[in-house]
Amino acid sequence: MKLKFDVTGKFQADPFIFEDGDKLYLYVTAQNGVEAYSAEDLFGTWHYEGVVASFVGRKDFWAPSVIKFDGRYYIYFSCSSGDEFGQLMHAAVADSPLGPFTNPTCFYDRFSIDSHVVQTDCGLFLWYAEDNVHCDRIGTRIYVDRLIDPLTPANHPKEVIVPTFDEEIYQRNRFGDGRDWHTLEGPFWFREGEWQYVMYSGACYQNDSYHIGYAAARSCESDLTRVEFFKHTNHGAFDPVLIRNEFEEGTGHHSVIKYKGQYYAVYHGRDRDETRDDFSEARTARVCKLHVEGGIITAERYSDHI
């Protein structure tokens, strides 16, 4: 089901939902800065709040996430200056969930996207995606790195989830040398009971196989660099949580919220009857119910209700 917004003509790629007090916030990808919305209720009307993080000389602000730590708000996103490295992970800080977020810090000197920062008993951890070309299935993979503080990565990332299916191919023969490029991105970590989960997007937003999958671990370990996650399959076969169906496609990059005791995924997608050539600018925020139990996640999706 689509979320309801008070503006038209806007899109909400890579939606990240954040609850603070009695309000909800949604942060999305945009060209000139991270855009935000707010709402009193998940299923109410979302109000456009404008750009909350933008910096001179940067563009293409991708896949934001936010955490509240010691009374301040930290936003994480990737952006580009047009140099050879492309998208680089940044962080900034504010005294309000609507910013303005200032004092940007660059985390890495290499392609790094799709943040999710979480806090456990062992401290702060950054989930994100970066490339690996020294493997059989080359492409973008899911990593976790410890944060020394909200603005300083330890820079000792651990590769956690890797491509194993053709359905995770972003582009075949990408470099003309016969190698197919795979993509796993958009990680979101959470814990429920004895289980930890990392959900992620796979393939390309323009492909029919673009999807959301997950890995799980039955573990109480709070140092997330030491947890061994196992990718979910159906007896070894590809088995996504979300993928195109009869009413929507391009279902990918998401976040998760436990709202009034029920888990929901907030993700982007396109209506199946859309005829736009620029698929990226047709992605709108949607919500569906998730069922989470015993290491298994399933989704309950409808076009017009929850």
Please give a quick description of this structure:
This protein is mainly β and 306 residues long.
Mean pLDDT: 95
Give the amount of beta strand, in percent: over 45%
Cα(first) to Cα(last) distance is 7 Å
Structural class: mainly beta
What is the makeup of the main sheet? Answer: 11 strands, mixed
Alpha-carbon Rg, integer: 18 Å
Count of DSSP E strands?
A: 24
The helix/strand order is: EEEEEEEEEEEEEEEEEEEEEEEE
Helix content: under 10%
- Which descriptor suits the 3D outline? globular
Account of the 3D structure:
The chain has strands at 4-5, 16-20, 23-28, 34-39, 45-53, 59-69, 72-80, 88-94, 102-106, 113-120, 123-132, 139-149, 152-153, 158-161, 169-171, 181-192, 195-202, 211-218, 230-231, 242-243, 248-259, 262-271, 284-293, 296-300. It has 306 residues and is mainly β. The chain starts with a strand and ends in a 6-residue tail after the last strand.
